[in-house]
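FAQ

Q: What does a record look like?
A: Structure on top, sequence underneath. For example:
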């Protein structure tokens, strides 16, 4: 690369990484690089306090635990710093039809038998009128969430009473400062300032330096664009085209407002309640509740959306509503030249399944796995882009499923998403499920078989068939096994502490 070494000197051969933008994406990236590749790179992050952050994504997926563990970040310290609660899944209300509810858990249903997934046996006995309870009765994550109880799962992955995972619900405005302190203590540099100029190499078009409003020039070898929706480097400077998915995911607005926590037990799950033109979120934290309304402006104006959000609060609001605008989609490529986009600078998928922070983490993982040696190569870029494209495409299909798999016809919005043409990749998955009860398999990426089963069944798509091997066991014996499994899960959950007790214990352990 052709950065000016005098402007940002490194004499030990490490690549100079310049991260543009702070917030969750920027500081997760900085922390990940200084924590995992300290011998391969230096990290210099540029952020402007006057720009601020989006900061409404407060719910996560279990993968964040792996990020913290990989960096050696203490869970209790993280939870205390961010006022976090535990999360066992997401409750969906009114999506399949008004009055329906189900929980998408982090974990499995039952256990496989003779290499056949549990849900095939459940489907068979359900169709035959056997003594089956709801499929959620066979998920420890669902039962614990319903009971407002929590403990960390055991280590035996084959034990269906412990085969669940957990994530966190936290204050996003406190997460980036926590990571900033951690990353700076390990060598990350920070400069306050707003980028006003970008220098590029005349021969190959790579970025060589950025200039700040105060005249500071920062050179680097690899630039990570964490500038949010502005996509300062990838979208504006490199002019990477945008792939618009709003015809499949028409929600393009959000309103966020915190509220006072009710006196009731703290739920270890996020709630998504479908509305007339989108859905409302509810995220319980230790010190407040995060609320929001995601909606399609083509079907609902801001005033009506605000009315629906405020009417649904279960506590007094703590601030005025904040309004956000966005588009569903992604940049055609996320790694171009020597610019890598992470987070909103790369793409946006609405927070229905809490995937925003996961996509940041996936990009960091892909960058570490395809990290350049001394210069960026086509192999680095191609490997990174293939990994990120697969993540976005699979999450996109899963989100569309929540809208398309509905019988609601009570508003123009639901009529639109119910009848719209979906991507071929999703249409093929749904056809396979309807005919055979099989979930399309892929080796890498988010939302594996149990997640698809949860949404398919939760929203009323019951397949016509199942794996024929599930017909082999005796029906009465199968019912006894199902009842025994349900009792075992319920018994284990009954011995768990309440979610509030678990939070109190971890707060005490962190000295909070």
């Amino acid at each position: 690369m052709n950065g000016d070494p005098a402007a940002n000197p490194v004499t030990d051969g490490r690549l100079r990484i310049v991260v543009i933008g702070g917030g969750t994406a920027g500081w997760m990236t900085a922390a990940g690089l200084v924590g995992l590749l300290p011998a391969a790179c230096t990290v210099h992050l540029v952020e402007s306090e006057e720009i601020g952050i989006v900061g409404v994504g407060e719910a996560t997926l279990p993968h964040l635990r792996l990020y913290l563990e990989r960096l050696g970040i203490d869970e209790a310290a993280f939870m205390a710093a961010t006022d976090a609660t535990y999360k066992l899944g997401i409750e969906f209300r009114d999506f399949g039809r008004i009055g329906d509810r189900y929980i998408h858990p982090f974990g499995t249903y039952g256990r496989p038998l003779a290499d056949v997934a549990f849900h095939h046996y459940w489907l068979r006995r359900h169709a035959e009128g056997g003594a089956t309870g709801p499929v959620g009765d066979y998920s420890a994550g669902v039962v614990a969430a319903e009971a407002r109880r929590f403990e960390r799962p055991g280590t035996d992955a084959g034990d269906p009473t412990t085969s669940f995972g957990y994530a966190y619900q936290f204050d996003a405005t406190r997460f980036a400062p926590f990571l900033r302190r951690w990353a700076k203590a390990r060598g990350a540099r920070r400069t306050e300032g707003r980028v006003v100029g970008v220098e590029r190499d005349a021969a190959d078009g790579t970025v060589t330096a950025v200039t700040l409003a105060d005249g500071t020039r920062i050179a680097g070898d690899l630039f990570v664009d964490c500038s949010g929706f502005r996509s300062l480097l990838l979208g504006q400077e490199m002019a990477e085209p945008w792939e618009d998915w709003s015809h499949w995911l028409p929600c393009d607005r959000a309103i966020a407002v915190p509220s006072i926590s009710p006196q009731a037990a703290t739920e270890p799950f996020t709630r998504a309640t479908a509305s007339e033109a989108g859905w409302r979120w509810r995220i319980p934290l230790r010190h407040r509740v995060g609320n929001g309304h995601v909606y399609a402006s083509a079907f609902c104006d801001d005033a009506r959306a605000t009315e629906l959000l405020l009417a649904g609060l279960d506590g007094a609001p703590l601030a005025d509503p904040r309004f956000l605008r966005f588009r569903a989609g992604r940049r055609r490529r996320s790694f171009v030249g020597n610019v890598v986009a992470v987070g909103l600078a790369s793409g946006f998928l609405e927070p229905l399944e809490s995937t925003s922070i996961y996509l940041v983490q996936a990009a960091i993982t892909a960058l570490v796995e395809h990290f350049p040696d001394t210069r960026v190569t086509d192999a680095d870029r191609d490997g990174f882009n293939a990994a990120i494209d697969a993540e976005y495409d699979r999450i996109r299909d899963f989100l569309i499923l929540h809208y398309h798999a509905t019988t609601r016809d009570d508003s123009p919005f639901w009529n639109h998403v119910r009848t719209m043409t979906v991507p071929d990749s999703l249409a093929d998955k749904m056809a396979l499920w309807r005919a055979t009860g099989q979930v399309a398999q892929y080796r890498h990426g988010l939302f594996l078989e149990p997640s698809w089963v949860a949404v398919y069944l939760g929203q009323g798509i019951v397949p016509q068939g199942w794996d024929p091997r599930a017909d082999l066991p005796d029906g009465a014996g199968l019912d006894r096994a199902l009842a025994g499994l349900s009792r075992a899960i319920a018994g284990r959950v009954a011995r768990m502490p309440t979610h509030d007790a678990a939070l109190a214990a971890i707060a005490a352990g962190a000295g909070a």
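Q: Is there anything notable about this one?
A: The CA atoms of residues 140 and 347 lie 34 Å apart.
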